[in-house]
Amino acid sequence: MIKITQTTWYYFVNEAKIRFFELIFNQLLSIIQIEFYEILKMKTIRDIMVSNVICVKDSDNVHQARMILKDRKIRHLPVVESDTGDFAGVLTQRSLLNNAFNIVEKFGMSTLEKRELRTAVKEIMTTDCITVPPDMDLMTAGEYFTVKKASCLPVVEDNKLAGLVTSVDFVKLALHLLK
């Protein structure tokens, strides 16, 4: 006959409790992951996009666009065609910096503002950006950020800008779901 001391008994009971709580915790974690995945499948871009987007026309000057980015503290500025209002592209902080560096390198700092005033947004904007429809599910859209390294996704419906989604919008969604 095996004699079990009180200390040994407490050890076995505590180990059993730990194993039980680990099992429950792992099951809850699996359920949360499944629910999170299902939530992302159910939601669409329309649910998280910014719909009252500030944009510029392709004929506006670069200086004006730079001031909007600076004043609003944003990094992406959608561009629409002057005549039709159709989505035309995106002016990014990066393209503005590249343009400024090129001007300063070729002509000097003193000419930067004058040259920006004479340069149309359409000359430096990105036109080959990925666009998404408002009814696209968030899982698919999220893959554009991770796989294709997109920094923003203009939401376009019938050639018109309907909104904009950035990686920050996905971070906000994740924080909301984790609360």
Walk me through this protein's architecture:
The protein is α+β, with helices and mostly antiparallel strands and 179 residues long. It folds into two domains: 42 residues; 134 residues, Roll (CBS-domain), CATH 3.10.580. The chain has seven helices and five strands, in the order ααβαββαααββα. A three-stranded mixed beta sheet has the order 1-2-3. Strand 2 and strand 3 form a beta hairpin. The longest helix has 37 residues. The model has no long low-confidence stretch (mean pLDDT 84).
Mind summarizing the main beta sheet?
3 strands, mixed
Specify the CATH architecture of the largest domain: Roll
Mean pLDDT: 84
CATH superfamily of the largest domain: CBS-domain
Strand content: 5-15%
How many whole angstroms does the radius of gyration measure?
Answer: 26 Å
> Given the helix and strand composition, which structural class is it?
alpha+beta
CATH topology of the largest domain: CBS-domain
Counting DSSP E segments of at least 2 residues, the number of strands comes to 5
State the low-pLDDT regions, or none.
none
How do the SSEs run, as a string of H and E? HHEHEEHHHEEH
Question: How many individual helices?
Answer: 7
Helix content: 40-55%
Q: Oligomeric status of the shown chains?
A: single chain
What is the top-level CATH class of the largest domain?
A: Alpha Beta
Q: What count of domains describes the coordinates?
A: 2
Protein name: CBS domain-containing protein
InterPro entries: CBS_dom (IPR000644), CBS_dom_sf (IPR046342), Diverse_CBS-Domain (IPR051257)
Keywords: CBS domain
